[in-house]
Amino acid sequence: MAFSASSLTRLAGASGVGLWHYTTADAIGDVNTAGYFNNAAAMLNVYDVIIAVTSTGGTAAVSHCYVASNSGTVVDIIDGVAITSTDSD
């Protein structure tokens, strides 16, 4: 799949840094590849935080990422930190 602008939502922002939520069926390895967010280059700033919810094969995973660079046309985000959770009930 590819980036979907309708799946990227700005949650908050101040002082030039935004907090975003992105949901996709793509794997996190695809999402954090340089160029994936190129179509959002006009919206994303360096250091904007993206909460990425990915679902590969029906298993959801959440990662905290941020924009490492944005040339105006090419956006690169860090690999991210996976948020792990346990539902033991």
Strand content: over 45%
How big is the Rg? 13 Å
Q: Enumerate how many helices there are, as a single number.
A: 1
Helix fraction?
under 10%
User: Which series of helices and strands comes N to C?
Assistant: EEHEEEE
The oligomeric state is: single chain
Q: Tell me the count of domains.
A: 1
Give the distance, in angstroms, between the N- and C-terminal Cα atoms.
34 Å
Structural class: mainly beta
Low-confidence stretches: none
The main sheet comes to:
6 strands, mixed
- Number of distinct beta strands: 6
Categorize the overall geometry.
globular
Instruction: Name the average pLDDT.
Output: 92
Describe what this molecule looks like in 3D.
The chain is mostly beta strands and 89 residues long. The protein has one domain (5-83). 4% of the residues lie in helices and 46% in strands. Strands 1, 2, 3, 4, 5 and 6 form a six-stranded mixed sheet that branches. The radius of gyration is 13 Å and the shape is globular. It starts with 7 loop residues before the first strand and ends in a 6-residue tail after the last strand. The model has no long low-confidence stretch (mean pLDDT 92).
